[in-house]
Write a structure and sequence with these properties.
The complex is a heterodimer.
Chain A: H1 2-32, H2 39-60, H3 65-92, H4 102-122, E1 127-128, E2 136-138, E3 148-150, H5 151-173, H6 175-185, H7 187-192, H8 197-223, E4 225-226, H9 232-245, H10 250-270, H11 276-290
Antiparallel strand pairs in A: 1-4, 2-3
Chain B: H1 7-26, E1 32-36, E2 42-46, H2 48-71, H3 89-108, H4 110-140, H5 148-166, H6 170-192, H7 197-217, H8 219-222, E3 228-229, E4 235-236, E5 239-240, H9 248-251, H10 259-285, H11 287-297, H12 299-304, H13 309-335, E6 337-338, H14 345-357, H15 363-382, H16 385-390, H17 396-414
Antiparallel strand pairs in B: 1-2, 3-6, 4-5
Helix pairs in contact in B: 1-2, 3-4, 3-10, 4-10, 4-13, 4-14, 4-15, 5-6, 5-7, 5-13, 6-13, 10-11, 10-13, 11-13, 14-15, 14-17, 15-17
The chains are: A mainly alpha, B mainly alpha.
């Protein structure tokens, strides 16, 4: 029981990170119908940016860790957003009218580029930082296993929840959110009614990348280690989360993220940790084959 | 446009913006590098010169591009005249391929020739075979298969497991490997048939990764990361390539040399690759191949015309997988050891890049792309002075994939139908119609 509770806590933490990345997939898919394959690598890049900035602030400027981490997160969001803006401009914008697989192939190329760019500039090895924010709150004690809740986990879940609330407000209540939803329904019509479609799509990429950057910083904080091949598997898992929740649906992405996080940790605990990636990949395949609209998505109607 | 700025000052402004953007992109990732110091704690190194070189490149590129755009008159789309048929290209290339290993052997002698036949001959041809196989699935039928490497792995593992188990020779197992992989292609293809293009790609990716993870973890059969080795190697119609009186070399009165086995493997792969090429060229003229191409262009129209899309997709999947299985078997023979690390997603991406850069659907283009992508990084590895410039840890394969990624993006943006693609439509009205 205690172990189950502990894995539940770990799963929710991991799921929050997946959920943040999944929003990037789901928004881009919703607005231009493209699987942004490079998003996982953008997440990895953001974790590296966070790592380097953290070292800069703590070692060179000698700031206290708390302030440094806060500044790192904000700056990482800005820099990752810039990357994503440039990527959209360079790799995807011209392809909107091209044949259907063109954006996906371009995204695979971009993903390959980003992973190897980081390998070339930072080396292929693991980069680990000393643990930050190591306090834990004991929840149960005296049993067979002491369940703990760490400050990090609280921080991750709190940051995720508050960002989602802010993000929800943006999509539902602001002109930008309205423009986004309009482009999602019918980009041509939205353009005729005076919505700047290019700008809206670019902003969608930027917001997705900023959320991925938060996920990257939190990932670094939680695990304390990152390497250049870390974009692929979390990227596929976050995409699974987006698909499971129903691609195009924002609450679905978060729900899917939590589900994947929980399934992964519980599977690893009770079945076999060697095959925990297989669990996530099978969910991806099963969902796409049998339930392509996911838990909360709208069915995909093919118009001729 | 009534632009108050002159072209040059406008270009300067654009250049400055370009420099700023590159500066922002490279700020932490290029400027700093984190490496563990003696206490194994990460320490930052500053790389100002490198950073400013990149910023400078950003400025110059944007500046030149801006000037170029200003000078260019509004573009009028001119449809290129149908290219001249380069009918001599394929036969000349073929002749060069046939002569290559013997030429290398004659010029360099048996020992130095080993490396040239192996890395530049056998390895590239293996990728050509894989590229032509994947081209059936991606180029002809338009099904993006991101898990192609799974079938390659099935072929390699099938040979490495079956050869000691059954005692069959290589000739019996080669088609068996291909058929096993094709069966896997059917198994994986069947559930994903209903999916639309990009979902299909992602599901095949998931299947491909699952095959690899199973190969890593199923220790009893695959021996995990250590892999399989010690299985019987290549024989020349029953004659093993070993020194001694019973080997191939003694039988033909030759002096023993390891390169002979590789030359035989080279011709074997060449023959099989040409067979794959022949099959796909012939199939394109058959109803099946036409159905593939029609499916690629418009699936809904195909269904409306009464084509059985499920069967057509399955054959494309299975045939592509068949050639991957054959390539896997040959890979096992070349390598002498089969480990899961040879079958990562990067490998799938490389093969896909070969097909995409070759111009999906073009056979000669795929062969060129394979030679370019695989050959160039091997060539870079040979140039030892690069190590002096870039440092000891310089590994050209990393740069290769970096450039391949960029090339895929560029290809999709500028020449989405391929670089060398001179392919004529399979069916054409002879005259009158344009």
């Amino acid at each position: 029981m205690e172990i189950f509770l502990q894995q539940l806590i770990n799963g929710v933490t991991l799921g929050s990170i997946y959920g943040l990345i999944a929003i990037g997939y789901t928004m881009v898919f919703g607005i231009i119908g493209m699987v942004n394959f490079a998003h996982g690598d953008v997440f990895m890049l953001s974790a590296f940016i966070a790592l380097l900035l953290l070292l800069l602030f703590t070692q060179v400027f000698a700031l206290p860790v708390g302030i440094a981490f806060f500044a790192v997160m904000l700056l990482t969001m800005a820099l990752t957003a810039l990357w994503s803006f440039v990527i959209e401009r360079v790799a995807y914008r011209r392809l909107r009218g091209s044949f259907r697989l063109a954006p996906l192939i371009s995204a695979i190329g971009m993903s390959t580029f980003l992973a190897n760019f980081v390998t070339v500039t930072q080396g292929p090895n693991n980069k680990s930082i000393p643990p930050l924010l190591d306090h834990v709150i004991p929840i149960t004690s005296g049993g067979a296993y002491d369940v703990t809740l760490s400050y990090k986990q609280i921080l991750i879940v709190a940051v995720t929840a508050s960002l989602l609330a802010a993000f929800w407000f943006v999509v539902q209540k602001t002109p930008l959110g309205r423009a986004q939803r309009a482009c999602e329904q019918d980009a041509k019509m939205a353009a005729l009614l005076g919505v700047d479609v290019n700008r809206t799509i670019a902003l969608t990429f930027v917001i997705g990348a900023a959320l991925a950057a938060v996920a990257g910083s939190l990932f670094l904080l939680h695990y304390g280690v990152v390497k250049s091949s870390d974009g692929f598997v979390p990227g596929v898992k976050a995409f699974t989360a987006a698909v499971l929740g129903g691609i195009g649906s924002l609450p679905g992405a978060v729900l899917g993220g939590l589900a994947i996080g929980l399934i992964e940790t519980l599977w690893g605990q009770y079945f076999s940790s060697d095959y925990k990636d297989v669990a996530a990949f099978s969910i991806l395949a099963i969902t796409l084959i049998f339930m392509p609209s996911g838990l909360l998505g709208r069915p995909d109607v093919e118009k001729v | 446009m009534n632009d108050p700025l002159s072209p040059v000052s406008r270009a300067l402004k654009d250049g400055a913006i370009g420099a700023l953007i590159v500066g922002g992109l490279g700020f932490p990732v290029i400027l700093f590098r984190a490496d563990p110091d003696f206490n194994n704690v990460l320490a930052l190194h500053f790389r100002w010169p490198l950073y400013f070189i990149f910023v400078g490149i950003g400025f110059v590129l944007r500046f030149v591009l801006s000037l170029w755009n200003a000078r260019r008159a509004p573009k009028i789309e001119v449809h290129a005249a149908p290219g001249k048929k380069r009918g001599w290209l394929a036969p000349a290339g073929l002749a060069a391929l046939v002569a290559y290993p013997l030429l290398v052997l004659a010029l360099l002698g048996p020992l130095p020739a080993l490396k040239w036949v192996d890395t530049f001959g056998v390895q590239i041809l293996l990728y050509v075979l894989l590229g032509w196989g994947l081209n059936i699935t991606v180029g002809l039928a338009g099904l993006l298969d991101l898990g192609y490497v799974a079938f390659y792995a099935v072929g390699a593992y099938a040979y490495a497991l079956l050869a000691p188990l059954t005692g069959f020779g290589f000739w019996a197992l080669l088609p068996a490997c291909g058929l096993l992989a094709a069966a896997w292609g059917l198994c994986i293809g069947f559930p994903v048939l209903r999916l639309r293009g990009d979902y299909l790609a992602i599901v095949t990716l998931a299947f491909g990764e699952m095959v690899r993870i199973v190969a890593v973890n199923w220790d009893v059969v695959t021996h995990g990361e250590a892999g399989l080795f010690g299985y019987p190697g290549l024989t020349f119609f029953g004659l093993p390539f070993i020194p001694g009186p019973h080997g191939f070399d003694a039988h033909f009165g030759l002096k023993f040399a390891g390169v002979h086995k590789l030359i035989f493997l080279y011709y074997l792969i060449l023959a099989l690759a040409l067979f794959a090429n022949f099959v796909s060229i012939r199939l394109r003229r058959l109803p099946l191949g036409r159905a593939w191409e029609a499916l690629r262009e418009d699936e809904i129209a195909c269904r409306a015309l009464g084509l059985d899309t499920a069967n057509i997709k399955l054959t494309a999947f299975a045939l592509g997988a068949f050639f991957a299985g054959i390539a896997g078997c040959l890979f096992a023979l070349r390598q002498g050891v089969v480990t899961p690390s040879s079958f990562t997603f990067t490998e799938s991406a490389t093969i896909l890049a070969i097909v995409v850069l070759g111009g999906a659907g073009s056979q000669v283009g795929v062969a060129f792309a394979a030679a370019l992508i695989v050959g160039s990084s091997e060539l870079l590895r040979e140039l030892t002075f690069l190590k002096a410039v870039f440092g000891e840890s310089f590994d050209p394969t990393q740069y290769r994939m970096l450039l391949v990624g960029l090339a895929m993006v560029a290809m999709m943006n500028f020449r989405p139908r391929g670089l060398v693609s001179t392919r004529q439509p399979t069916i054409l009205l002879k005259d009158g119609a344009s």
